[in-house]
Design a protein that fits this description.
CATH topology: Umud Fragment, subunit A
CATH architecture: Ribbon
InterPro entries: LexA/Signal_pep-like_sf, Mito_IMP1_subunit, Pept_S26A_signal_pept_1, Peptidase_S26
Subunit structure: Heterodimer of 2 subunits, IMMPL1 and IMMPL2.
Helix content: 10-25%
Number of domains: 1
Shape: elongated
Protein name: Mitochondrial inner membrane protease subunit
Distance between the termini: 76 Å
CATH superfamily: Umud Fragment, subunit A
Radius of gyration: 20 Å
Order of helices and strands: HEEHEEEEEHEEE
CATH class: Mainly Beta
Keywords: Hydrolase, Membrane, Mitochondrion, Mitochondrion inner membrane, Protease
Number of strands: 10
Largest sheet: 8 strands, antiparallel
GO molecular function, one term: serine-type endopeptidase activity
Number of helices: 3
Length: about 170
């Protein structure tokens, strides 16, 4: 009887470890569901919207300008942030705020991206902490899941004029 119970327990633990590994790989490499908070991506993503983030793009270096990404915060590694990619390595980007009279520009260094929130007046982004290392990107947001009346692919950036193709 003890041997039977021990066998069932070990079999259960084996299945638990196997399915745990499968779940880890799915969430690490395929994607997952993310709840967004904060006003920095309004009007595209509202606070408490639920989105699906796929993680394959970061592994294959196929992040493009205009993509919305989930990134480990450069100022707080325990939290993730949601921002739009404005510039890739080598791109010329506007580093000043929209209200600044004189506009300043800079080039994104190798291995980095330039991120900004869609709500430029209420966003802490690369204009504050500079270019973000590509390695901090966790995934690319594909579509919005919740609220249901807004289900589907995300709309284009309201700040498309900030993408410089010089």
């Amino acid at each position: 009887m003890f041997r039977n119970a021990l066998g069932k327990t070990l079999r259960f633990l084996g299945y638990t470890v196997q399915y745990g590994c499968i779940a880890h790989c799915a969430f690490e490499y395929l994607g997952g569901i993310v709840v967004c908070s904060g006003p920095s991506m309004e009007p595209t993503i509202q606070s408490s919207d639920i989105v699906f983030s796929e993680n394959l793009s970061r592994h294959f270096y196929s992040i493009r300008k205009g993509d919305i990404v989930i990134v480990k915060s450069p100022t707080d590694p325990k939290s993730n942030i949601c921002k739009r990619v404005i510039g890739l390595e080598g791109d010329k980007v506007c580093t000043s705020n929209p209200s600044d009279f004189l506009k300043t520009h800079s080039f994104v260094p190798k291995g980095h991206v330039w991120l900004e929130g869609d709500n430029l007046r209420n966003s802490t982004d690369s204009r504050c902490y500079g270019p973000v290392p590509y390695g901090l990107i966790r995934g690319r947001i594909c579509f919005k899941i919740w609220p249901l009346n807004d289900f589907g692919f995300l709309r284009a950036s309201p700040n498309g004029h900030r993408f410089l193709d010089d």
